[in-house]
């Protein structure tokens, strides 16, 4: 099945057809995985050409030999032939070994060895040098049924390109989706991603032109502008993956120096140069709004829906580090409302500490709007703490297992809350309760089951 790529600058407009050219995706379609797979398998064959000699040739007919001692002459010729055969065999063996050694240098990252782990086998065998040392991490996902789901993750490689990874429930592990080589992403840029199903978000009839999942990527380009890029994954009537520049990019909005990003569609949260929390929101077009919140310089951000139904009208909880270094939550009931404080115990954190959060429906009953909310953050020693509420007793804080490790200094924690804009509604189960961060230059994946944390492995 062929993969069609399409480069479009129309942002969120639905673009039918697949006959235009795309830029920036270097990929080969893999029928075993949805989307694009960037890791190309190199297949190289080596061989030897066999030259057949006439086995009926008679050594007695060699001219120039002395005829008075034929036995000694034949013995000499046999010895010479044996020596010649040994030389040829030695050359052939040397050629084969040389070919095999050359073939090893062509091995792709997926065939490299993986360091052992005392907690869990890594999900991917790529080396630590595959990730930029202080790369941001963006993650998004969606339920496709009550038990099946998909996750997409973005990070910046040492080549400065933006790399996309994919995992679908049932897969053996993570796989490369694509490398976006034509994005002018700034080295060390913040990265946030979110997603939606087009027919759900636009409330459109499901047809071949409107039924796709769109992944939204937000970053800072080389001109220090906030930029948007999208990737569309379409399964019917044919599988194709499109990509293009988003409609936010021409606004050339600026984020504060060192700002971090977070996104839960259709919202993006950033910090400006005055340490104010700004929201970029899509409702037919992009707008920028000051939320009126003063944050710690270089504060981390997280964004989760207030409820399943509330998420459909912009009811969000914004989690950040206030300018007094305290952990804070501000929420709203719909996108046009002002935010108000959520009751939370006073927790003072180290300046610029990592913060991640995720949310899960407390019940499968759609009339029950309560959510279980979890916030991960680092204390002064770098250990990961969890502040959460999963019943009516209020917020609590506890330590997490030492086995989760300590995120690399100056890096973030990104957690996954599936989009509400999907064919499959948010599920009360914990299969997608996952967080990601860098440890020793590799992206670690951890999972919560409602009671305990475990290390899944390394994404890359």
List keywords for this structure.
460 residues; Neuraminidase; 2 domains; four-stranded antiparallel beta sheet; 25 strands; transmembrane; transmembrane helix
Quick structural gist:
The chain has 460 residues and is mostly beta strands.
Task: Describe this structure as you would to a colleague.
By secondary structure, the protein is mainly beta. The chain has 2 domains: 69-104; 128-458, Neuraminidase (6 Propeller), CATH 2.120.10.70. Helix content is 9%, strand content 32%. It has 3 helices and 25 strands. The chain has helices spanning 70-104, 198-201, 308-311; strands spanning 7-8, 137-143, 149-156, 162-168, 175-180, 192-197, 213-220, 226-234, 240-245, 262-264, 267-271, 276-282, 286-294, 301-305, 316-321, 327-331, 340-341, 355-361, 371-378, 384-389, 396-399, 413-415, 434-439, 442-448, 453-458. A 5-stranded mixed beta sheet has the order 1-9-8-7-6. Strands 2-3-4-5 form a 4-stranded antiparallel beta sheet, with no helix packed on it. Strands 10-11-12-13 form a 4-stranded antiparallel beta sheet, with no helix packed on it. Strand 11 (267-271) and strand 12 form a beta hairpin. The longest helix has 35 residues, at 70-104. Mean pLDDT is 79; it is low at 1-73 and 82-128.
Measured as a percent range, the helix fraction is under 10%
> Ranges with pLDDT <50 over ≥5 residues?
1-73, 82-128
Helix count, DSSP H or I runs of 4 or more residues? 3
SSE pattern, N- to C-terminal: EHEEEEEHEEEEEEEEHEEEEEEEEEEE
Widest β-sheet, arrangement of strands: 1-9-8-7-6
Assign the CATH superfamily of the largest domain: Fucose-specific lectin
Counting copies of identical and different chains, the oligomeric state is single chain
Structural class: mainly beta
* Mean pLDDT metric: 79
Indicate the CATH class of the largest domain. Mainly Beta
Instruction: Tell me the number of strands.
Output: 25
Count of all domains = 2
Architecture of the largest domain, CATH level 2? 6 Propeller
Strand content: 25-35%
The major beta sheet can be summarized as: 5 strands, mixed
Cα radius of gyration in angstroms? 29 Å
* General shape: globular
Distance between the termini: 27 Å
CATH topology term of the largest domain: Neuraminidase
Region (Disordered): 102-125
Keywords: Membrane, Transmembrane, Transmembrane helix
Organism: Trichoderma asperellum (strain ATCC 204424 / CBS 433.97 / NBRC 101777)
Biased composition (Low complexity): 107-125
């Amino acid at each position: 099945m062929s993969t069609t790529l399409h480069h479009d600058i129309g942002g969120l407009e639905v673009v039918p057809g697949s006959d235009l050219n795309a830029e920036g995706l270097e990929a080969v379609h893999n029928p075993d995985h949805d989307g694009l797979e960037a890791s190309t398998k190199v297949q190289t064959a080596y061989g030897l050409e066999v030259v057949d000699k006439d086995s009926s040739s008679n050594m007695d007919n060699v001219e120039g030999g002395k005829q008075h001692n034929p036995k000694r002459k034949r013995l000499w010729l046999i010895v010479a032939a044996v020596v010649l055969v040994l030389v040829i065999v030695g050359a052939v063996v040397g050629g084969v070994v040389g070919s095999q050694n050359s073939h090893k240098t062509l091995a792709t990252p997926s065939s490299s060895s993986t360091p052992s782990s005392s907690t869990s086998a890594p999900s991917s065998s790529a080396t630590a040098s595959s990730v930029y040392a202080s790369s941001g991490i963006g993650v998004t996902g969606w339920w496709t049924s009550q038990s099946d789901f998909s996750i997409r993750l973005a990070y910046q490689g040492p080549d400065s390109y933006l790399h996309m990874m994919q995992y679908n429930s049932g897969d053996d592990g993570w796989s490369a989706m694509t490398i976006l080589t034509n994005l002018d992403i700034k080295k060390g840029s913040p990265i946030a991603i979110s997603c939606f199903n087009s027919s759900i978000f636009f409330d459109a009839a499901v047809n071949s032109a409107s039924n796709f999942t769109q992944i939204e990527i937000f970053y800072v380009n080389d001109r220090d502008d906030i930029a948007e890029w999208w990737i569309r994954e379409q399964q019917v009537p044919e599988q194709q993956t499109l990509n293009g520049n988003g409609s936010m990019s021409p606004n050339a909005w600026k984020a504060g120096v060192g700002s971090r990003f977070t996104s839960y569609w259709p919202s993006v949260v950033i910090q400006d140069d005055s340490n104010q929390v700004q929201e970029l929101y899509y409702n037919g077009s992009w707008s920028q709004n000051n939320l009126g919140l003063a944050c710690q310089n270089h504060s981390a951000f997280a964004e989760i829906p207030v409820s399943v139904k509330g998420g459909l009208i912009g009811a969000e909880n914004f989690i950040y580090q206030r300018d007094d270094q305290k952990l804070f939550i501000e929420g709203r009931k719909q996108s046009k409302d002002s935010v108000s404080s959520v009751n939370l115990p006073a927790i003072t954190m180290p300046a610029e500490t990592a913060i991640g959060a995720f949310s899960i429906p407390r019940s499968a009953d759609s009339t029950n709007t309560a959510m279980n909310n979890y916030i991960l953050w680092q204390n002064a020693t770098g250990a990961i703490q969890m502040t959460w509420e999963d019943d009516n007793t209020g917020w609590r804080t506890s330590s997490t297992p030492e086995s989760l490790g300590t995120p690399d200094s100056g890096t973030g924690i990104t957690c996954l809350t599936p989009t509400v804009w999907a064919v499959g509604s948010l599920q009360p189960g914990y299969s997608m309760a996952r967080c990601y961060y860098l440890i020793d230059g590799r992206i670690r994946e951890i999972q919560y089951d409602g009671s305990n944390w475990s290390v899944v492995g390394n994404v890359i």
